[in-house]
Write a structure and sequence with these properties.
Number of domains of chain B: 3
Strand order of the largest sheet of chain A: 18-17-26-25-24-19-20-23
CATH class of the largest domain in chain A: Alpha Beta
Distance between the termini of chain B: 27 Å
Bound molecules: flavin mononucleotide, iron/sulfur cluster, FE2/S2 (inorganic) cluster
CATH class of the largest domain in chain B: Alpha Beta
Structural class of chain A: alpha+beta
Number of helices of chain B: 18
Shape of chain B: globular
Mean pLDDT of chain A: 96
Largest sheet of chain A: 8 strands, mixed
Distance between the termini of chain A: 34 Å
Largest interface: A-B, 35 and 34 residues
Number of strands of chain B: 16
Low-confidence stretches of chain B: none
CATH architecture of the largest domain in chain A: 3-Layer(aba) Sandwich
Strand content of chain B: 15-25%
CATH topology of the largest domain in chain A: Rossmann fold
Strand order of the largest sheet of chain B: 3-4-2-1-5
Oligomer: heterodimer
Radius of gyration of chain A: 28 Å
CATH topology of the largest domain in chain B: Rossmann fold
Structural class of chain B: alpha/beta
Number of strands of chain A: 29
Number of domains of chain A: 3
Chain lengths: ~550, ~500
Amino acid sequence: MAFVKLNDLEIEVEDGTNVVEAARQHGIEVPHYCYHPGLSRPANCRMCLVEPHVFFPPAGAIVPDRQLATGCTTVLRTAPPDRKLDGKYDFIVYTDSPRVKKARADILEFLLVHHPLDCPVCDQAGECDLQDYSHRHGHDKSRYLEVKNVPPKKDLGPDVLLYATRCVVCTRCIRFADEVSGTGELGLIHRGSHDEIDIPRSHEGVPLQVLDNKLAGNVVDICPVGALISKDFLFKSRPWFLEKANSVCSGCSVGCNITVEYKADGLYRIKPRFHEDINQHWMCDDGRLGYHYVNSDDRLQLPLKRVDDELTPTHWADALAVITENLSEVETEDIVVIGSAQGTNEDNYVLQQFAHDVLKTTQLGLFGQLPGEEHKFPQFTIEADKNPNAAGARTILGSANGNVVLEGEALWEKVSEAKVVYLVSGGPERPLEDAEKAALKHVDFLIVQDVLPSEVTQLADVVLPGTTFAEKDGTFTNSTGWVQRIRKTIDPPGEARVDWEITQQLAKQLGGEMNYHFAGEIALAIAENVPEYADATHQKIGDAGIKLADSDQ
Amino acid sequence: MVQERRILYEHLDVPDINTFDVFRQYDGYTRFEKAIAEYQPDDIAKMVMDSGLKGRGGAGFSTGLKWSFVPRDIKPCYLCCNADESEPGTFSNRYVLEKNPHLLIEGILICCYAMGIETTYVYIRGEFTLGKEMLDAAIKEAYEKGYLGKDIRGTGLNVDIYTHPGAGAYICGEETGLIESLEGKRGQPRNKPPFPAVEGVFGKPTVVQNVETLCNLPFIVGNGVEWYTQMGPTYADTRSDPPTPDPNTGTKLYCISGDVNEPGVYELDLGLTCSELIEVAGGLRGEEVKAVIPGGSSAPILTHYELDTRLDFTSLTLAKSMLGSGGIIVMNETRNIVDCLLNIMKFYAHESCGQCTPCRWGTPWVRDIVQRIADGNGRKSTMTRPKFGVAENGRWGDTGETEEIYEDLDLLESVANNIANVDTMTWNTICVFGIAVSWPAVSYMRKFRPEFEAAIREGELVTLPVAEATVPPEENYAYQQRFVPKEFADL
Ligand SMILES: Cc1cc2nc3c(=O)[nH]c(=O)nc-3n(C[C@H](O)[C@H](O)[C@H](O)COP(=O)(O)O)c2cc1C
Ligand code: SF4
Ligand code: SF4
Ligand code: SF4
Ligand code: FES
């Protein structure tokens, strides 16, 4: 630990911390553009200038250093005993001296000379570092009278637009494409004040490569100004009108930490949230843009039942009555209950409890999205398992005595012999493979709980409208054993209900004794009954998640 | 009358000196042979340190000291010869490349021997096609004669030289911009530290040296330190107690251009005055000297009051200017300083690499302000303000007088100072290109303020008579703070 005098504070920081981070840890802002903790440090914006104080032998005193230093590249370390300042400090640095304040204002003035000042029509307004820093650290008027550069607006890729006039040439986006995605689509063209971000183009301006890698959306997040803009979010909403909830991506088994931004009428965008061990600062575009199914007009809003071979809307009481009737007629061994890798641990726990305690069956299965492709980048991997909770669902479904959790071929074999199947799906529309379809067709009475009409619901006798990750609380367990919380944002559409509530209602209808009121209560039951999850209460999980003890084996 | 002292340029005009055989007749490679026969590498490094040789590329940093920063245990270590010579008003390296390339090779060999370097890159300004051709031919010949390549002359010494042409960017003359460019990246200077001596080409220790600096080495080795230090003054650095010697030894290839009768490169001892140099170059063309740029276009300008300044590293630094690349541009009474600054600012605005904020957007801004003034659109306020200066009590303060407010001159000075501050000698940029912008801008404006004011007042460029155009010495910030160093021997 280094002992540092930061302004009037005496602080201890870990060796190797830069001044920007050290200050941030103590609530002091050192404005910065080019510095991003997940990228290399070119120190090109000069926004983070700070004033180190050094020992000046001729004067025999500690004095302000001749030059200001960039806080992003000034690293704090323990000094050898004979080099301590004032006999105790490893470093002395000021982030609020008059010289620093003047330098900041001056740099901001330069940053704004060519800026169009089009905040009223800029998507970034409200969450823009240029706006915020100008407000907090800048001059109050412009002295620039000359002609402004007006570089053209450019389409860089499927989801990314460049408003080049707003660019502060911090090169974060270039470094991201070079270092994290390793795809290198971005670079600077021209020189000096005509510097422009661009993709490779022929002399005629035809793109030779576009910014279409699966991590491309991150450049929009890290762009400190409104230069890089997501087409998906463009002109949709002012950011300050959006509610935010910390959650976890349901796009694959990585379990990226996210912030879901929403209004009452639906989800507006998804942004990555830092988690050191899982996704660092990033997320992929599949996860980022995959939320649209939640807002879909096609969402199942009412229970459906088959009448004259046609799925027709009905009310909950009727749907549940039809199910109870069919379930009470079959033998236990003819029932298969299939949980979902899209569902939460809580959903699956209630489901297995229903199967085990109420239906008295030990025949369970696990269903989920079809596997996709794995994508590896230098600093990020998108996993092939497109479910957020396969690991959790597998453990939880199999947690009660004697439970067998079938998957793949074995499951479909069992299904084709069953009379009644209760299948929970969820997530984006799931196509069926031939074998799956054939097996499900064999079933006399198929109950499907899902969020969208799909090939699965088409085969059902009763369809129950469930909820997506955005409409419920609960936990997911990712492929590396991190248990993390998702949170309810919007209300489910129409009459749709949280999945475990539906299952619990069914259980009650069949005389089961289950009475959970909220997801956290189920998590407590899991913690009590599933040894690996002993610590996985919502309280302990919090926003950081917890890692299961023996999950590495 | 001062005489040229030709050492580096002695044999420049000998026919076919660019060929190995002729070069050999004029002691070619004997200094290198002497080095490997008579001295250990460390001896050479010590000789260079003792010779007081300072880098001729611009910064004037002690070559021996630079070598001492290179960690000896990290290999490979590289030598980069800076032949990018792009500073306006500078053209001395070019003649070495075109006419006497073997001299450079010999200098490189000595440096490589002293530093244990096996690979040298010569980064040549792209426009120097002839220079590159001649150097490439000379390198080929040196390989054939066994002075380059493996096991040179049976000594076990290996040295390879590669030449690399630039693509026309001034900033690739800055040593780390050069290194980036050499590595195949955009020519953008790096943050320092680490300096190239520690982390340079491909992350390895690298000695970057100007062509002229390297060409001094054969003569230091050949004629000895004592002979070398007799040329040029050695001043006393009085910042330390007791004063330490501050050598400005050797000759300098001064490139004299502008309003002189015989422009060209003159090899002279360091330490001559500006007036003496003008004499050497055939005297002034025109009636009177209006201004002199002493060290390439990035150096602050000197007025006719400052012509007694000695043109060496220390004296010019203490006169708030710099020797830089030794490109001396003389201007007579017909020159308009506003126009001259505009010309220079156009160059710098075009050449900023664009990496860091103050320079990227400040430099064109400065250019535009000067352009506006030159176009007759400079702004002057209708109000006046108290004039600050040396007051009656002899201190800085309100003089009791009022002055007119030339808003654009205030703006020009402020913007330039925000890139790199002339008074505190600090810069907010990554590299000292920022200084090359703000120092001329502020010095021209302050020292020839009447001409700038006239342009704003009259709405067009007005070339004033020299006496009127120049601020008097007592109002000249540089002249006021100027410090004339004493020679060490005189103490
Ligand atoms: C903007 C800029 C341009 C420069 N251009 C050149 C150049 O063209 N040639 C050169 O030798 N040094 C140039 N330099 C100086 C180099 O950075 C470096 O100091 C020099 O090559 C070191 O060699 P020396 O010690 O032998 O002078 C330039 C420096 C700056 C800041
Ligand atoms: S587009 Fe954004 S991230 Fe990229 S250089 Fe410009 S300001 Fe920085
Ligand atoms: S990698 Fe997986 S978890 Fe992360 S954002 Fe992409 S789909 Fe979501
Ligand atoms: S000062 Fe100018 S030339 Fe130097 S790095 Fe910054 S932008 Fe480039
Ligand atoms: S954040 Fe430090 S220079 Fe840009």
